[in-house]
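User: Here's a chain of 300 residues. Predict its fold as C-alpha cells.
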Amino acid sequence: MISFTWNVNEAFAGQMLRYFLREEKQLSRQALTDIKFRGGSIFVNDQPVNVRYVLKNGDKITLTFPPEQRSEYMKSVEIPLTIVFEDDHFLIIHKPPHLPTIPSRLEPNWSLANGVLFYYDQNDIASTFHAVNRLDRDTSGLVLIAKHRYAHDLLTRQQKSGIVKRSYKALIHGRVPADHGTINAPIGRKPCSIIEREVRSDGQEAITHFRVIHRYNDVTLIELSLETGRTHQIRVHMAHLGYPLLGDDLYGGKRELISRQALHSDRLSFFHPFLEEQLTFSVLLEQDMVDVCCQLEKVE
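Assistant: Prediction complete.
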C-alpha cells in the first residue's frame, strides 16, 4: 500500500484535517471515502484520527491508501516494454505501433495495460493500470502511467489545466505551404460510426498547433502540439485540411509507404507533484517513419 507523511506548519494550524487533505494535497472526495471504507488509514502523531481532527503546528500526518483493485478482466501478459522513466509514482513507456493502450473486445489480452500488469507482478508492485494519456493502437511514442490512483488524480488535474504537454511528429500527404499554423476546429463523432470523428459545428473544441520540419516532393514531416485532447484529433484535423496522415486509411491516407498512421508522440512534459519539479522526456522518431523519410527526396 502507498503511504505519505506530511508535517503541518502554522499556515494550517487550527484547520480541520479534511481541509488540509482536500485543498493542500488535492485528495478527491472519493479518495477520502475509499481510505475510510476500503482499508486505508489516517494517523496524526501515530494516532488514528478522522478528517474532522483539528490540526496543530508540528503535527505529523501519515496517510495510507487502500490496496489497488484490479479488474478481473485485466490479465497479466508478458509483453516487452521499453521503459523511459520509473519511480515510485510514475512509469513512462515508449509504446510501439500496433499495440493498443488498453484491451479491447477483439484483443482482450494484448495491450500495453496487460504488459504493464505483468511487469508489476514480476517486480512486486501492487498496483493496477492507470494511464494518464493514451495513444491509438497504431500511434507510437510516450505513454505516462501512474502507479497509484492518487498520482493519477493529480496528473488528471494537470491534464485539464494544460500542464501536461505532449508533442508529436507526423508524416502527411501533400506539401504544407505555411511553415507553422493553428487549427481551431471542433470535433465530434461521425454519424453512423462508433469509431470515426469529423470536424463539425456541434463538436467539442479542438485546437492543434503545427510546425513544418521538412518538405518532400509530396509528403511533409510536421511537429504538432495539442491544446485539447479529442479522440483522433491530429488525424481528423490534418484530414480536414486536406493533408491526411500517411497510412491512415480511416481518414483518407494511403498505405503505400507505411502500414499504419505515421504518427509518433516523441515528447512529454509534466510537473512531478511529489518531486516538485518539471520533467521532460523525448524519444527518437520510430524506425518505420525514419525509413519512409529515407525513401523521399527532400525539397527544402
